[in-house]
Specification:
Two copies of one chain form a homodimer. The first copy, chain A, is α/β, with parallel strands linked by helices and 192 residues long. Chain A is built from six helices and eleven strands. The first copy, chain A, starts with a helix and ends with a strand. At the A-B interface, helix 2, strand 3, helix 3, helix 4 and strand 5 of A face helix 2, strand 3, helix 3, helix 4 and strand 5 of B. Strand 5 of chain A pairs antiparallel with strand 3 of chain B. The complex binds guanosine-5',3'-tetraphosphate (G4P) (2 copies). The site of one guanosine-5',3'-tetraphosphate has 16 residues of chain B, from strand 2.
Chain lengths: 192, 192
């Protein structure tokens, strides 16, 4: 997605060989016009699947997923990472391991909002090692819903997230695929 | 806002005399069409103020604020409540006290995204005791930006949030104002 690659090049900054900072338009300040285009791009890749829900995870997944859900005219559900005042029972939960923090956290989705009648599109902002996505996949599995596919705004292709998800048999669509962040340069996978 | 009051009555549930659960369309599952209407209603109340940024706080503030920012064609910035991978320095921070948890947390906004040139509209999902809003106001003050006003989707008018904000001299707009949650009934302030 050209407009997204341009945003990453011009408004992103390479923090290390492994981390790209995109706070200026995705992770802290949100460029809503870009989110509209991201939503449309996600929809065009997952057309014709009778999607009934978009599922993401707080916090940065919400904005890019919002427009996709809106375009599809379906609800957006976001998994919680921590206890919420109103979510106390009747929950799907799954464990997500964090390599950086070396800890396991529980993500939760209320059973009220996901059932075996649903056809789910999982969307999130960044695909790194895929742990969060695996947690969401597990939640969908527990609900009995069908998983149509998984979309990411940015994939770090030098990490093993995509492999993990594809090995588990899932379709993955990433709007920008970063091959390398070495030498403070962003190199995309589709570059010739 | 009639459509919002109807959503609260039909899709909300009263958890106690003090807590309304609106997970079905605002706090966990998001009704994006309703968010579009909420965004438009916020804009109509704050017209003609040359707003340059919408400021909210993660997580539930993002969806209702997204459409408002989009309609105004300005960026949406969301304050972080916890450490983020990419936000390490150059930050405005403010303390927010939680009565329920009896603890103080730091909220942060990068200095990159708020300056004295900005005219800010603060938006959030629920106004209860106003502590989170006071934290956002403090961040705006630190940046030197002008504060145009503060908008909430739902105000619990039986709590002192609105008074605190108005006593501090700020304009507050709430799309639904709940007078009472007693006896498992939602009573709105505008009801005759
Ligand atoms: N900007 C940026 N972020 C990265 C990058 N690689 C991973 N992340 C994000 O960092 C966070 C890492 O989460 P951890 O659970 O600690 O996982 P990990 O150490 O196993 O990767 C995630 O944010 P999150 O949980 O989705 O946070 P939130 O933004 O939704 O609050 C993930 O999306 C990167 O190159 N750039
Ligand atoms: N559903 C619902 N929520 C209420 C109600 N009253 C307060 N809240 C929310 O509960 C959370 C309370 O936050 P605390 O920081 O513990 O504050 P408090 O005890 O001083 O009120 C806030 O969510 P938050 O920090 O905004 O969480 P998030 O949803 O953004 O993650 C606030 O919006 C209510 O009647 N119904």
């Amino acid at each position: 997605m050209e407009q997204l690659q341009k945003a990453i090049e011009e408004r992103g900054s390479v923090l290390s060989d492994h981390v790209i900072k995109v706070d200026q338009f995705l992770n802290h300040q949100i460029d809503t016009n870009l989110m509209v285009e991201i939503g449309r791009e996600f929809i065009s890749r997952f057309q014709g699947h009778d999607i009934t829900k978009v599922l993401t995870i707080e916090t940065s997944g919400i904005a890019p997923s919002f427009m996709a859900a809106h375009e599809l005219n379906v609800p957006l559900v976001f998994a919680r990472k921590k206890k919420s005042l109103t979510m106390t029972d009747h929950l799907y939960t799954s464990s997500v391991y964090s390599y950086t923090k070396e800890e396991t956290n529980q993500i939760t989705v209320s059973k009220d909002f996901l059932s075996s009648d649903d056809r789910v599109l999982i969307l999130d902002d960044i695909l790194a090692n895929g742990q969060a996505a695996l947690g969401l996949i597990d939640v969908v599995k527990q609900s009995g819903a069908s998983l149509v596919g998984i979309g990411f705004v940015i994939e770090k292709s030098f990490q093993d997230g995509r492999d993990k998800l594809e090995e588990a048999g899932h379709r993955v669509e990433s709007l920008a695929r970063i091959k390398s962040l070495e030498g403070s340069n962003v190199t995309f996978l589709n570059e010739v």
